[in-house]
Amino acid sequence: MSPQDNYLATPSGLFFEDFTLDQELVHGVPRTITEGDSSLYVALTGSRFALNCAETVARAAGFYRTPVDNLLVFHIAFGKTVNDISLNAVANLGYAEVLFKTPVFAGDTLEVTSKVIGLKENSDGKTGIVYVHSVATNQYHQKVLCFKRWVMVHKKQGEVHLDTPIIPKMQAVIDNDEQLVPKNLDLKLWKEHYSDHQIKADDLNPGDILFHRDGITLNDSDHSMATRLYQNNARVHFDQHLMDNTAAGKRLVYGGHIISLCRALSYNGLGNGLWLGAIHGGTHANPSYAGDTIYCQSKILDVKQFNRRDDIALVRIQSLGIKNSMPDELPYLMREENGRKRYHDNLVLDLDYSVLMRR
Amino acid sequence: MSPQDNYLATPSGLFFEDFTLDQELVHGVPRTITEGDSSLYVALTGSRFALNCAETVARAAGFYRTPVDNLLVFHIAFGKTVNDISLNAVANLGYAEVLFKTPVFAGDTLEVTSKVIGLKENSDGKTGIVYVHSVATNQYHQKVLCFKRWVMVHKKQGEVHLDTPIIPKMQAVIDNDEQLVPKNLDLKLWKEHYSDHQIKADDLNPGDILFHRDGITLNDSDHSMATRLYQNNARVHFDQHLMDNTAAGKRLVYGGHIISLCRALSYNGLGNGLWLGAIHGGTHANPSYAGDTIYCQSKILDVKQFNRRDDIALVRIQSLGIKNSMPDELPYLMREENGRKRYHDNLVLDLDYSVLMRR
Amino acid sequence: MSPQDNYLATPSGLFFEDFTLDQELVHGVPRTITEGDSSLYVALTGSRFALNCAETVARAAGFYRTPVDNLLVFHIAFGKTVNDISLNAVANLGYAEVLFKTPVFAGDTLEVTSKVIGLKENSDGKTGIVYVHSVATNQYHQKVLCFKRWVMVHKKQGEVHLDTPIIPKMQAVIDNDEQLVPKNLDLKLWKEHYSDHQIKADDLNPGDILFHRDGITLNDSDHSMATRLYQNNARVHFDQHLMDNTAAGKRLVYGGHIISLCRALSYNGLGNGLWLGAIHGGTHANPSYAGDTIYCQSKILDVKQFNRRDDIALVRIQSLGIKNSMPDELPYLMREENGRKRYHDNLVLDLDYSVLMRR
Prior knowledge:
Three copies of one chain form a homotrimer.
Chain A: E1 6-8, E2 24-26, E3 31-32, H1 35-45, H2 55-60, H3 70-85, E4 89-100, E5 109-121, E6 127-137, E7 143-154, H4 177-180, E8 208-211, E9 216-217, H5 220-229, H6 240-243, H7 255-265, H8 267-270, E10 273-283, E11 293-305, E12 312-323, E13 334-337, E14 340-343, E15 347-358
Antiparallel strand pairs in A: 2-5, 3-5, 4-7, 4-10, 5-6, 6-7, 8-11, 9-11, 10-15, 11-12, 12-15, 13-14
Helix pairs in contact in A: 1-5
Organism (chains A, B, C): Thalassotalea mangrovi
InterPro entries (chains A, B, C): HotDog_dom_sf, MC_hydratase, MCH/BMMD
Protein name (chains A, B, C): MaoC family dehydratase
């Protein structure tokens, strides 16, 4: 750096003071999803849901071709929001009302817009919470995916900014069942072996618990490849030199990768849960790092019929991601402590979502 | 786990007692192979055989488009069988009569069925050997690939099950040459540089040995990505928490990945061995783990003319995979000991196969 | 190895004595680039330039479909030359006149030819420098990419070979601006958000410096997957057993991977630098290994108008790749020492190139 050097500022993301209520952010880097992305998704997560794996199966189920895995769609849409919303995030606090509205096929191009729907300063004076509603659309301007999320974001200065917090209302559960079912989905021609002859919605009851047996160990290369594929540029996932100065000293695994691993693991037992229709809420209870082995256990929250159809039912599931222990190796997964939910240190994900399942 | 919890069983694969002679298993998760899968195959193995890399080359060789690498087809077909056949396997004991019958192109969808052709209890009372014949078909119901394999599988109980072992006959070598040559394959227009001006079938004689020079070091991320791409869900490849309790303490590399690496390494010297037509037999002599460097040496077993054609010959090859040593760094690769073949601890693969090679 | 074994030689690349002036080398393994390759490129590098990411954007910019990233084209073309030119290289000394002449689209097939344009023996008697001009063409025999490079190559014997060194002329800068602009490129319909509302060419002045903030840590699996994807078979990138005997004891990262990382990192700040038109020169100042974190800082060398067009300008940039330190953590990046440029040990890349940038 010599005296005559003229340093230009490079984008550093928005800070809490940069957000205003109803602000609209049109995110960068539109993205065409390809078969290459889907192959990588399988290679990185091990997902095996048949509807996303074979054109013959997709056609038998009413699609004209293989739909892209909804979680791949979610990660790519989420990735687009990071550069504006969460580059200066301390933490992703939660998701709600994640709704997959239109199937995505290879060749579709996604763009994402977010609107600020809430703002709240924290008492520490250094951070605030930003609530956004993000919408991904395809090249036909159809809404593909909507979701709300809230993140704790650094302030630039630490000065007071807002008098009254604005906290948006969020539905605990998306309960308009019509929204969850793709128009053409039809499982009447589904063959038993497509999904390994597994149990169906009619075999499930609220309260049933399934431990999905398989475990998957995270490698730095896997999770950082996945996160780069999603063009999510949060530095904590990639930059070890930066992370050397943190308490953990390691690159943080993108929480969405854990969601994908848990969904992929749930194939063992819930392989007939073919279509992820909505995520009602999600919490990354603890961080994950390379070397951690992820297991998943699911609890059936609800089984609902839909329009008297005898091919599909709506099943609401709570999936828990657990690291480095099978559930029976831990004294508890979560428990009440002074009226608050407390997660075991090895519990990494608490996800509440609905799938369409064969009856 | 609270008293009212209702744990449902999740699929745990078949045990020795679950198999019966002539039983037919229709495996799950049909799979459309895409160009994305082929790109990943190149990135994971380093394969360079020109017929699988370029549409111009494939057309010059009589195909209407680029055929998918036969080993990628094999791994995807094999992967489908794991969930039923070998989830409780102690070891994959061998392969025979692996025959590639119809070329596969991007867009083709594979389904796989296996038939139990043999069963044998082991004297330890805890395991048995299951012999299966697997057939992969495409969306036109054409047979794409057939193979036999035998695996040692755990018993559930350890009780006696079978009176008489049934051991199927298996051909040592697929000797119907017609079966090995794709109908349209024609190498008359092949250009020397396509395959780096390398030696041709007419330059080879039985007994010739080629050391393929290059080495490739295994990373955990590579082999587990490959194995997930193939949707092979054997836990030993992915779950470090599980493997912590084994003697080696490491995730086991899928044996098929070693086959692919050896085939890719053999390009150096045998780059004109364009079409892998059949695998006559294969043994995973020792396990491989991340950090191991794989080398390959091949011996020409046989060179045969086919139908008086002057563009191709059939070459039978024995390729040996060796870890962490070049062949001349070892006192022996395999030797006779008390009348039995004994492999050096660093020898990981002994593969007997036929390729179609330019004359 | 028994007495009757007949070892055949396998290809070992060319040595200095094998090269002659004007020699033409037609490289092996033609390659069709697919959408799968582009997905992998994003996953391995984190690149986000919108023109290469979305069909809607590419069409708005005058292309009939999404062009393949020029650096992916470069790596695949470069990879094809390795087997002949640089398998016995001590070091890649430099590049010049790298010019992207025709856009590449998924489905295009590349072949590469190189001509020897210079030869120079080194005084050590053991090595020499080979200068080559490589040309990649597509299936329509259009020139896609031309580049010159020079490498230090081992001699077979160490005997004297050449009387007079022949050192080709090379342009310091490709200055025919017509060559840098794809015929149909038109940024009049470009939308601000495509490239995250970043600065444009008119905001830049020679001497401006931008530090691109993000860092990316190399994993062995990432760089070796990238290098295998490019079918670059230089052993130093893959073979740990071989590298155990080197001073560093580690697999060397392919220098081109560092170029791609720096270009991808430069999106932060130079996201409107949509089309990489030429690389005027490049030096790999120091090696990189797994575990290193790469940062990038760029200096604007020149901003030029082109044909009075008000949508694009030509911007010449010097990007420096730096490992394990942000630029302000180092006392200097490069400096003059006794009249020679001396790089800091943490500086890994010095790249001089031109991009087409929005005005």
